[in-house]
Amino acid sequence: MLTSMQCFLISQDKRHDPVLLPDGVTVVLGRGPETLVTDKKCSRTQVELLANYAYRSVRVTQRGINPTSVEEIHLHCGDSTTLQEGETLRLVNGLYPYCIRFEQDDNSAKKNPLEFFCSKQNQQKAEEDGKAPTVKRLKVSCPSEEEDDDDSFITEKLKQLQETAAQAQAHSSQKPVSKLAPHPSDSWEDHGKLLVFTKKGIVSSTKVAGFDLDGTLITTKSGKVFPISPDDWRILYPEVPHKLKQLQSEGYKLVIFTNQLGIGRGRLRPEIFKAKVEAVIERLGVSLQVFVATHSGMYRKPVLGMWDYLCKKANGGLEVSLQESVYVGDAAGRPANWAPGQKKKDFSCSDRLFALNAGLPFYTPEEYFLGWKQAPFALPDFDPRALDPKAELYDPPNASLISSSSELVIAVGFPAAGKSTFLKRHLVSVGYAYVNQDTLGSWKKCVALCETSLQAGKSVVVDNTNPELESRRRYTECAKKASVPCRCFLFTASLEQAKHNNRLHHLDIHQILNSLVHELTFYLVPRGRKEMESIRRMGAEL
Question: Compositional bias (Polar residues) spans (predicted)?
Answer without folding.
Answer: 164-176
